[in-house]
Amino acid sequence: MQDYQQQLRAMFVPEEEIPAQHRIEEIHQREYLVNGEMRQWSGDVSEVYSPVMLPDADGVLKRKLIGTYPVCGEYEAMEAMEAALKAYDNGRGEWPTMSIVDRIKCMDKFVYKMIEQRTLIVKLIMWEIGKSYADSAKEFDRTVEYINATIDGLKDIDRQSSRFEMAEGLVAQIRRSPLGVVLCMGPFNYPLNETFTTLIPALIMGNTILFKPPKHGTLLHYPLLEAFKDAFPKGVVNTVYGRGAVVTPGLMATGKINVLAFIGSSKVANDLKKRHPKVNRLRAVLSLDAKNAAIVTKNADLKLAVSECILGALSFNGQRCTAIKIIFVHKAVADEFLKLLSDAVSALKPGLPWTDGVKLTPLPEPHKPDYLKECIDDAIANGAKVMNEHGGVTAESFVFPAVVYPVNEKMKLYREEQFGPIIPVIPFEDIEETIDYQIDSPHGMQVSIFSNDAKEISALIDPFVNLVSRVNINSQCQRGPDVFPFTGRKDSAEGTLSVHDALRSFSIRSLVATKLNEANKQLINEIVNDNDSNFLSTKYIL
């Protein structure tokens, strides 16, 4: 174990041995965006340390400082909110009343400026959260694709809304209108992509934004602040920096936040929602905790199941809400499955984010290795074993994945979302055991079922579609494609995200209606022909 620990420690090489194209200069942010201005900050700052460690002169490994960012307070947060409120102006502001065509032009300009920052942002994703270069680049590119798909989705919605509807002697035009001020808070694991899956649709629908970057993954948004400033009218996008516990409760307590868009823990989401004094006015779009299960039956293709479970459980070290976080395997095939799974884990390549073919990287949260050790020790104390060689071996910020078996209800790993590289495995005899687990679980996001027996799969599909939001057959749990609905039941989500669903989540159907008579026909035609209203219009966006 000590020998392998030393091998892992040896990954952390001196800075001069890091390929030149992947080295990073420290970035000390002293600006934040409010009311269309890049305001200077001279107060406290937060230091950003990478999970990538470097040996000092004595060979002691230390996290590399990659920069600092402002630690603003409640006063600055309130300034940002006032700017957003002013820009929205009770729905009368420039942005909420702007035509769809002109909003799309603004978003196109933002995307152009965003792409100019690709190299730096990809590098910052790697250094801030330890994501591999390939996955960091993929996150950036997928985010650009998501924005373009959102633009196309809005065009589709607008084209469908460009006609008039007639019923019971009334004529009406029905379109989607913005909701107001949106507080947008994203997660550290996909700090760009997941954040933008709420921020972008909220923005393009005409809402004004308060944007608080995630704790891990803050600096990577800095290169985009100028793009937001230049692409959108002043006050439409405003940043909120500082400790979440300091700056967000007061914002919610004002009752002036119309939408909470949050991706993170249900505990934080519940606390924020409770602080809002006008609960009927608050719409929440939330993606929260998950403990997605995989079910491997005796009729499964075990090699396929292992391949998909490895992807599902250990992509980005298992730090995904859509990760497979517990596996049920039938006792008849448990031994063979565990052997294949352990061998597959052992074959994964550990390394630093820029290492070619790397599959396992350091963890961004400083206290995560200690928590994972607690989970493993607790499982061992309650009768489980680590099944794979080197499972759970830790070297500073790096933890080698552990396959833990047999897991039971006494263990932390049975219920808690580990959000890291541990694969708990539970043996079962009766398929009802897997259904009972999901019934009792506070989570309800996804499940993966592995079997080649159509009747067996059918018997599982029908109960699980009413327990989780997505059932995956012979494939890992995942979010995409972005045109598919992404949501969850119970404590796992509120609202639905996909390209079209997100646009609907951040808007409301509004209509203009009148009695169908000659005088009103003439009135409506005059408004439409003279292009006097951005809402009441038959313009068709191509």
TrEMBL record:
Protein name as annotated:
NADP-dependent glyceraldehyde-3-phosphate dehydrogenase
The answer, when asked if Magnesium is one of the entry's keywords, is: no
Q: Which InterPro entries match?
A: Ald_DH/histidinol_DH (IPR016161), Ald_DH_C (IPR016163), Ald_DH_CS_CYS (IPR016160), Ald_DH_N (IPR016162), Aldehyde_DH_dom (IPR015590), Aldehyde_DH_Superfamily (IPR050740)
The keyword Oxidoreductase is assigned to this record:
yes
The organism encoding this protein is: Mucilaginibacter pankratovii
Q: Which residues form the signal peptide?
A: none
Key words of the record? Oxidoreductase
Q: Which family does it belong to?
A: Belongs to the aldehyde dehydrogenase family.
Q: Where is the Aldehyde dehydrogenase domain?
A: 63-507
